[in-house]
Amino acid sequence: MEQIGIINPVAKKWLREIDPQHWSRFAYDPVIRCDHVTNNITVAFNSMLNTHRDVTYLDLLEFIRRMMMRKFNERRKECSGWSSVLPLRVHAKILKHSKEIRTLTMITTWNMEYELLVASGGYSVNLREYNCQCGSWQVSGILCCHAMAAISHYCGRGAVKDKVAEFVHSSLTKTAYMQTYVGMIHPIPDQKRWLEVLVCIMRPGYTELMNPPPRSVQPGRPKKQRNREPDEAPKVGRSGTVICKLCHQAGHNKRSCQHRNDKENEGGSVGASSSHQPNQTPPPQSQVTQQLFD
User: Fold this and answer.
1) 88, CA 20 to 30 Å: which among 3, 96, 154, 162?
2) Interval 100-110: pLDDT, tens
3) Which residues contact 76 (CB under 8 A, 6 or more apart)?
4) How far apart, in whole angstroms, are the C-alpha atoms of residue 176 and residue 163?
5) Integer CA distances (angstroms), 187 to 47, 67, 68, 152, 194, in order
6) How crowded is residue 292: how many other Cβ atoms within 10 Å of its Cβ?
7) C-alpha R_g of the chain
8) Alpha-carbon distance 274 to 23, whole Å?
9) 199-230, pLDDT tens digit by residue?
10) Which residue, among 173, 167, 169, 171, has the nearest Cα to 112 in the 3D structure?
11) CB of 117 within 8 A of CB of 104?
């Protein structure tokens, strides 16, 4: 916080007014087992709806239902094909942390407790309590590099590959992943086969006709893009990936290339006159025929 205050005092004051559990990893609730908070899931879900955001509510819900049916089946099949106890992304993070233990210095004690020394200081690890002083293991549920070094010494390098899953939180295992998608969204008849409901029981013993609410059309073209946050970067268009074939620079094509325009301006009328060749006497027909046969 002091370093942030040196760069921008206003930012330090703004962060002071927000509970650290909403923006700082050290204050995250370890019960959640998540080391980052983003709105990626809402953005991804919004893009999956695509053009169906313009349809009626009933059609939109039907699209979401069928989409979730497919997703549940795809995730279940994908997970059943895993050969490891841990999901692929969790396994990749652990493999990355295992490569970092080469730079650590270990002090071994007893009762499954260790102290790991790095350039920035030391961290104590308690394997019995699944705890590391850096806090990463408790917050994410995935082994940090300090815990990986302690487990490698405790279990031995030969058995650490089979024992490492025992120190990962149970919510991040293949069994928990399968349990998430064990449910099933059953198919239902098409809307054309639904029974028409003409009455709505508002109170016991009373019935009233239920009509749809009146539809009001708002002026202007319907909005399709979602509202972006004030500090969110705008969507990047294709112009940033276009490469010019003349100057090989990004951001424009050969038609709008400034290098080409400068050459044309330097040439002027000379370039225009040179593009037209003077009239020449065509060769005799006999020579043309002989060239074709040759």
Assistant:
1) 154
2) 888 899 998 88
3) 178, 181, 182
4) 18
5) 24, 12, 11, 49, 13
6) 7
7) 34
8) 67
9) 555 566 666 666 777 888 888 877 767 677 77
10) 167
11) yes
